[in-house]
Automatic annotation (TrEMBL):
Domain (Cell envelope-related transcriptional attenuator): residue spans on this chain: 125-305
ATP-binding listed as a keyword: no
Region (Disordered): 1-43
Composition skew (Pro residues), residue ranges: 9-24
Name under which the protein is recorded: Transcriptional attenuator, LytR family
Gene3D superfamilies associated with the record: LCP protein
Amino acid sequence: MPVHTSRRPPAPEPGAPGRVPPILPHRAGPGGRGPGGAKRRAGRRDPLWARLTLIFGAVLMMTSGVAIVGVKAIIGQATSSIDQGNLLGDAGKTRAEGGKNLAGPIDMLLLGVDARKTWAADDVRSDTIIILHIPATHDQAYLISIPRDTEAHIPPFEKSGYRGGVDKINAAFQAGARNGGGWEGGAQLMAKTIKGMTGIGFDGAAIINFGGFKKIIDALGTVRICVSHEVKSKHMSYVDGKPMWNADAEKLGKPMTQVVHKKGCREMKGWEALDFARQRYGLPNSDYDRQQNQQQLIKAMAKKATEKGMLTNPIKLNQLIKAAGESLILDTHGVSIGDFIFTLKGVTGNDVVALRTNGGTYATNANNRESLNNLSMRMFDAVKEDTLADFVVANPAVLSTRKSA
C-alpha cells in the first residue's frame, strides 16, 4: 500500500494509488514511577478505541457506535486508570515548534521498559525506543524505531546527578532514573537525548511496561504472530510442560526444556507472544529484527482488539481497560487525553506505517560503535519538516518489510 503526502486531501481507500501499507510499545511505584508503571470497514468508522490502541500501543477503550456527543467524557472515563506524569521535561515542543497546538503535526516518544518485580526501579534501561509521527493531516501515522545500542551524547541531568557522557542511547533512561529520578526522570533524559540527536521536539510520551502487555493479550485471548526465523528463547523454559522464567525454573531443580519459537504463523498466548518479541539473540539482524517483531506484536494486538464483538463485550472491555491501566504511564504535554485522542480520530489501522533505520541492519561510526546513517538522519529531518510521506515515497528502503500477522 502506498503512502500519501502530508497536507494532501483526505486519503483514498487502502490499496488506492498514493498510499503505503501500515503497523505500533507500570504502574507507578515509590520513587517516581517505578515498575509495576483496524481496518476501515465500508459504511462506518472505526471505534476510537481502535485508534487509541494503535497510537499508544495499548488497549484503553470505548465501545463502537458511540455518538460524537459525550465522546471526550467517555474517553476520560475509559482512560482514568492510566498513570500520567511529566515524561518530557524540557524536550517538549517549544512555542516556535508548535507548542501545545495539536492542529499541526504530532510527535510522540514511546519507550518500552522490560521491568520485573525483582529489579530496582532505578536500574532499568529502555530497550524499545519509538518515535511516532502523525502529519498535520492527522490521517496517517509512522513508527520509527531507534536502535538501543546507538551511540549517543547524553546530556547532564541535575535531577539524578548525572554529569553527562557518551554511551548507548538506552543508557539515558537508566542515567535519568537513578538516585531518585525514577521513571519520570528516565523518560525526561531520554527525550532530551533524542531531541539533541534528531532535533525532534515532542507533543507527548508514553512509558510502556512490556510485562503489562501480557495482561492485555490475555484479555484479548490470543494474537496471531508470524515467526520468520526460528529462535530459541534466552529467557524462558518449560518445566512439567509449564512455561517459566529461567530464573524461577532453576529454583525448582527439575528438568528444563528451552522454549523454541518455530517458523510459521499461529495464534500465541500472552506469554509466548511477549517472549518472542523480547528475543534478539539468534536472529539474523539481532535488535533490528526484534524491533520488527515488536511492531508486529502491536499490530496483532490492535487487530484482535477491533475484531467483531471484542469492544462491545462489557466483561472483555473492562478487562482491557484494567490491563491498559497497568501497562502505561502517559504524558500528553498538558493537553487533556480526551482532546489528544479526539484530534487523532482520523487515524485508522490501515494508516499506520512502520519505518526502519539503517536499512534494518547495523551501521557503525569511526569509533566502531552503532550509529544512525545519513539516510536515517534525513528521515528525522523529514519528521521535523512534516514531509515524511514524500521522503518515504522517494526512499522506499526505509519501509519495514517484515511479514505481519
